[in-house]
Amino acid sequence: MIAEAGHYALVLALALALIQSTVPILGARLNDGGLMNVARSAALAQFAFVAVSFGALIWLNVTSDFSVLNVYENSHSAKPLLYKITGVWGNHEGSMLLWVSILALFGGLVAAFGNNLPLSLRAHVLAVQAWVASAFYLFILITSNPFLRIANPPIEGRDLNPVLQDIGLAVHPPLLYLGYVGFSISFSFAAAALLEGRLDAAWARWVRPWTLMAWIFLTLGIAMGSYWAYYELGWGGWWFWDPVENASLMPWLAGTALLHSALVMEKRNALKVWTILLAILTFSLSLLGTFLVRSGVLTSVHAFATDPTRGVFILMILCVFIGGSLALFAWRASALKQGGLFAPISREGALVLNNLFLTTACATVFVGTLYPLALEVVTGDKISVGAPFFNLTFGPLMVPLLLAVPFGPLLAWKRGDLLGAAQRLIAAGIVALLVIALVFAWTKGGAVLAPLAIGLAVFVIAGALVDVVERIGLFRNPLPIAARRARGLPRSAWGTLFAHAGVGVALIGIVCETTWNSEHIAAMKEGDTARLAGYELRFDGAMQRQGPNYRELQTRFSISEGGRPIGVMTPSKRSFTTRNTSTTEAALLSRGVSQLYISLGEIDATGAVTVRIYHKPLVLLIWIGPLLMAFGGLLSLSDRRLRVGAPKPAKPQRALQPAE
Amino acid sequence: MRKLGLILLAMITLVLAAPLAHAVQPDEVMADPAKEARARELSRELRCMVCQNQSIDDSDATLAKDLRLLVRERIAAGDSNKQVLDYLVARYGEFVLLKPRFETHTLVLWLVPPLVLLGGGLALWLHVRRRADTVARAGDAAAPLSADEQARLDRLMADGSDRTA
Q1: Which of B:96-155 have CB within 8 Å of A?
Q2: Which residue ranges does the record assign to the Cytochrome c-type biogenesis protein CcmF C-terminal domain (chain A) (predicted)?
Q3: How many Å apart are CA B37 and CA B60, to the nearest integer?
Q4: Which of B3, B109, B120 has the CB atom closest to A371's CB atom?
Q5: Which residues of A505-515 are buried (b: 16+ CB within 10 A; e: fewer)?
Q6: Is the N or C terminus of chain A more exposed, i.e. has fewer CB atoms within 10 Å?
Q7: Whole-angstrom distance, CA of residue A342 vs CA of residue A321
Q8: What is residue A304's predicted lDDT score, i.e. its pLDDT?
Q9: How buried is A194 (Cβ within 10 angstroms: 0-12 exposed, 13-18 middle, 19+ buried)?
Q10: Chain B nearest-CA residue for A401
């Protein structure tokens, strides 16, 4: 009954989406406010029905209703409640339902908080949003229905993949989808602007908070996924240049570019056409990511060819939306008026440079991810494109970009003074050089590139600080005045500081982890001691434990530093009976922002356990960086400038805020 | 989307190595640290062909283990890094390399990043120049006032109001 209700709610959501995609457009053509307003109620109702449908699937999982195929295949009655809920999106069907639910959520948010949008713009935005939603409802209903029943219900389910039974599954996919799908709003706004043929600075003001919000979620989602892989997969890697990861990195790179170009558009009414194109491309890359991951094309081109229903369906969605929006762009973009002028050396110029490098980086990831597929389809040749390729191509692109980052905020709009900016960055440059010299001296004879890269990261961080220090006159004014000016500084300036510094912080973590990561592999018996990076790790012993749906061999290591005990680590191996698989649960011990990492291998006949121990210096910075970036985004989002409908900053006028 | 990677990875592990084994086992490590370092470096450039985008250094699969041993065997036999890679490509095809070689069929792959950067830079430069030209011309055109405008300006200067409006 619940399953049928969920299914029915989904069908109703499709029906509403179809109304929402046509009636408002008609209303806009006829200039009929009533018809245009249909978009609002339809979007809200559509979200309500999807929520019912999604809730139904959660309910079926929580109650372990194994008469539903999807639940039977991915759940187990003994599974802890948390994983019964998160398991909903731990499989193809549920994950797609989460995707459309979030899409409908964003549509609902625009409907609920978009009262200050011009009526016809809102009608168009919601209509475009509904086009995308309709396509994906159809996809789910036709090829990936999560509510299918089994004629003879089995007594027990087949359990969720053990690797996914982790808190990471609760956080990572929803965050990632909020980011991915959040870019649909920028896309809808872009398409609406093209359909209406009107685009002004106000448009950029409306789009920027939505883009920023999606970007924050995507940043957190990617970072969270990376940390999850780091501790779950058991060999301490945190980024693999895997096509699945690249699929999320591409929209992030394009979205970051979009964020910056929308800034130019908002402030200076320039780069309009490019911003529109980026908005289209960013969401297109999100769709592409969905296609890559959901069609099975990544596992093998042949797997795709043997069961192509889903893949071909998404491919069609992809072609219609990307092709359609680009055609619309080609047709209407020339109608958009060119905006403000600027000299090459200016804030705008710096942001254009940012866009050039980010776009190139994105193109690099794109070709690296798709070229092997294309080559195999066309010629049958199989090649691999992995980490070594991306390190060689993507890495160098980041160097000039990061060098330019501190200059951007210091240049004036329209016409900047590069020499002046450079002079103000001298302090940052000196700090960076000192750090390079220090790291060189400290690691003498070691890697050459690493100290330089750390210097670059320090330059980015110090450069980000310089901007704010200058603006509040920290060393020129007495402290109370500086503090007052700091409070008066727009939140977006602080946002820039945190976001840019976050990039530098992450880079330090990346460089330190990859360069000075040390490891120790040994077969250890009870009582053995291993030494690594100044720590002694004593293997105290192992014991068997019974978990809710697994058996666990838990080992215990006492860690000491110079004879002084500092902690206990308990890496384990779990065997899940239902799927007959085992997972390794690595143990992590943080020392500051560095970590010790132990993961277990096989146990041989003599009872010795293969143990891999890593010392990962400053590794946590890799994820603290993105957290800072997201925090910067949040600060920027809370800037009153972005609250549309508050045109007079002096007057605390209570207006609806689109993005909070 | 990472989770699908995890699913696939887990599926592969399920098929290939029922009890989860680990990459580089203690018994594989070479006695000479310099050679071991070379072996690790090469391992990171080689793909475990039955896995999804994993290097043999990371992979748990049996094939990866065999390949790791093979790499070490070749190094012990005195091969240079290039010879080891050549040997593996000859045996397993180019699919084994995680960084494809620069050849005709990988031309596009390798040239896209520099071409996008150069092309984008060139397009920007042309755009800036064209707009600068337009602005310059627009500036020239705006310089002299027509007789009518001049007369209106004179009137405005004289009595401070624009009666023609």
Answers
A1: 96-100, 105-106, 108-110, 112-113, 116-117, 120-121, 124, 128, 131, 135
A2: 315-640
A3: 19
A4: B109
A5: bbbbbbbbbbb
A6: N
A7: 33
A8: 62
A9: buried
A10: B117
Report residue B5 as tokens. 């990677």
- State both tokens at A543: 């014991």
**Burial category of A654 from C-beta neighbours within 10 Å (exposed 0-12, middle 13-18, buried 19 and up):** exposed
As a whole number of angstroms, the distance between CA A529 and CA A110 comes to 60
What is the C-alpha to C-alpha distance for residues A389 and A375, in angstroms, rounded to an integer?
16
Distance CA A555, CA A544 (A): 9
Phi, psi (rounded to 5 degrees) for A445: 85, -5
Quickly list H helices, A406-543: 407-410, 418-424, 426-442, 449-472, 479-488, 491-516
From the list B49, B26, B12, B163, the residue with the least C-alpha distance to A609 is B26
Burial zone of B27 (CB within 10 Å; 0-12 exposed, 13-18 middle, 19+ buried): exposed
What averages of pLDDT result for each successive group of 10 residues across chain A (660 residues)?
94 97 94 92 97 97 94 91 93 93 96 89 95 96 93 89 87 93 95 88 86 96 93 84 91 96 87 91 93 77 67 90 93 78 86 94 95 89 90 93 93 87 91 93 82 95 92 84 87 93 96 90 90 92 88 93 92 86 90 93 83 94 97 90 50 45
pTM of the model: 0.89
How many other CB atoms are found less than 10 A from the CB of residue A531?
A: 10
- List Cβ neighbours of A69 (8 Å cut-off, separation of 6 or more): A148, A149, A150
Tokens of A593: 């922002």
User: Phi, psi (5° rounding) for residue A583?
Assistant: -125, 155
Report ipTM for this prediction: 0.84
Q: Is B29 on the interface with A (CB under 8 A)?
A: yes
Amino acid at site A252: W
Q: For the segment B69-92, what is each residue's pLDDT rounded down to a tens digit?
A: 999 999 999 889 999 999 999 998
Tokens 């603006």 found at: A471
Q: How far are the Cα atoms of A70, A193, A436, A513, A572 from residue A287, in angstroms, in the given order?
A: 24, 20, 42, 33, 38
Classify residue A117 as left (phi > 0), alpha (psi -120 to 50) or beta: beta
Q: Is the pLDDT of residue B64 over 50?
A: yes
Residue B54 CA to residue B46 CA, distance in Å, equals 8
Tokens of residue A432, six digits = 């960076």
Does residue A162 contact residue A574 with C-beta atoms inside 8 Å?
Answer: yes
Question: Exposed, middle or buried, A451 (CB in 10 Å: 0-12/13-18/19+)?
Answer: buried
